[in-house]
Amino acid sequence: MAARFTETFASDPTAVDHKPFMWSMPAMTPDAPTGWSLRHGNLECRVENGAVREARAFLSDTGASITDDTTWSMEVAFRHVSGVAPSLVYEAAIYVGWRAEEPGQYGLLSLCYDAGAKELVLLNGGDRQAPIPVDLGNRFHALRLAVRRHQVRVFVDGERRLGPVAVKSLACESPAWFILGPISQGLTGSYRCQWDYVAFTDEGAFAPGQGEWNPQRDRAPVTAARPLRSGEVDPRLAFDHPPCPNISVLGRETGEAKYIGAFPDALRRWNEIIAGRPGQIEVPEYQYADGGPSKQNIYRSTIPIRLDDQHYVAMMLLTRGIDDTVYGYMDYKLWYCVSTDGGRTYDTERPLIQQGAEYSITHPNRYTWIGKNSFCFATLPPFLVRMSNGEVLLPCYYAPLDENGEYYNPHQTSTYSLVFNLIGQWNEARQDVDWDVTDPIGVTPQQSTGGLSECGVVELRDKPGRIFMAIRGGNEGDRTGKVPCVKWKTLSNDYGRTWSEPEPFTFSDGTPFWSPTSQAMFIRSSRTGKAYWIGNIPRVRPNAGWPRYPLVIAELDEEKLGLKRETVTVIDDRGPEDGSDMQLSNFGFLEDPATGHIIVMLTRFAGGPGRNDQVTYEIEVR
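Structure (tokenized):
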């Protein structure tokens, strides 16, 4: 089936329901000196002594598909308004990129405008064709690429100005996508340009006036889209069903009062105990190659785990830097303390160290050397899991080292990590916990560029010792367009000691779904006995951690180890006043003991200009 679309920018291109498709780009900021906006029905890129990210759309999201042999045409109505971009590649009127047939090669055709020289330049693979003298100011100009039999022609305002010339490729890996605006970063400048429409067809390599394709006349958002290939995600499947009668979002309210009101007694007591404790401690044993201080920030925002009426365990995160994923990541380490009097008091906070003579405060487990790398809880908010055999399970992620003892980060992503599990047992005196660690859980960098990190974990109902995890992965920095952005599932049949090879977490019928690089957790309802997954399932192919909306809840099929698609229920979504970079993630969750309802609390980050509201949702399950 052929693909054809015409994008007329009749509405916000970053909106979820925008037709013909949603663009991946910064939010519309009409009043900012630098940014994107809609002006009089045109898309405008505006830069004033700064830089802005490009507008892009993956070919798979548009319904288009391009190979070296595809015959296709693309046209934009483009106008340069003012200024001069700092480099030719900062004002791309059209950019089309696809994966060439030859491995490691990338097809690229881009029309870029040099306002200072008043020249339009075709980037053809790694080459620049001879510039086309033209003034693209004053009004909109129709710029068209027409590709057939490995040759391209360039038309400006209906006149052929270049070609046919052989289409070339360059040695690199990059996604298959369309781009408008800057195709490079790093330089600042001041310039302004606009698009009236963007149109594509693979029904022919048409010269203006040839055939029936006329994007200036035909303004339908989408005429036809290619069918999905085997294994591709159809984002509609998560939402094309009637509301689930057994899951209801009762409401959303501003603030965290309802969430705090549902705190279990053990968490209330813990918060009272830690209220007066210092936020920093000195740990002289921690030494660093950069000579930095050994004083540690200590974060105690954990949920203590109740093991029996008398025994509780709480943990805390320590880092030299701030508690941010990027900046504090290589300093993370865990401490803990225990209560033997029902959670009324806790003993001394101390490093969480694997049992064995070879482990110490500076080498707390077989994966971590303080000052070289780090490890951190993988449950959010931080909590331990009590298994049916009375033992404690804590999934962790860590920064792996290579054979030379250096941080292993194959794609140079913001972080790279693998997962292991800590398993805790009470010692004979039942005064402390003995900790052991499992073998690592990981996937290849080709499956997840940043490795694996945060884990949703649940012990399966009526199956003692069968522990199921769905783990955060991602495609940050992927230049191939082949790395999936999904959660990865794995199963243990022996109380977390060994784990199956990770594979994509899907719906229970095997249908795949996307999930960005974001938090996702399980909660078991005491009311229904069922396990529910809370996380993001977007409507477009994720680019690492974007988009983190909508936030959904769905029931886990504990036999097939997938989500029951018919139960997917939207907790919250991006609204008409929200920016495209909004987030519905980093949530706290628990069950209200009084009602059995699931309570979810988060900061609705960037939910509209200047809005970062803390909100709480109440969900009834039946």
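The longest strand covers residues 72-84. The chain has two domains: 4-227, 247-621.
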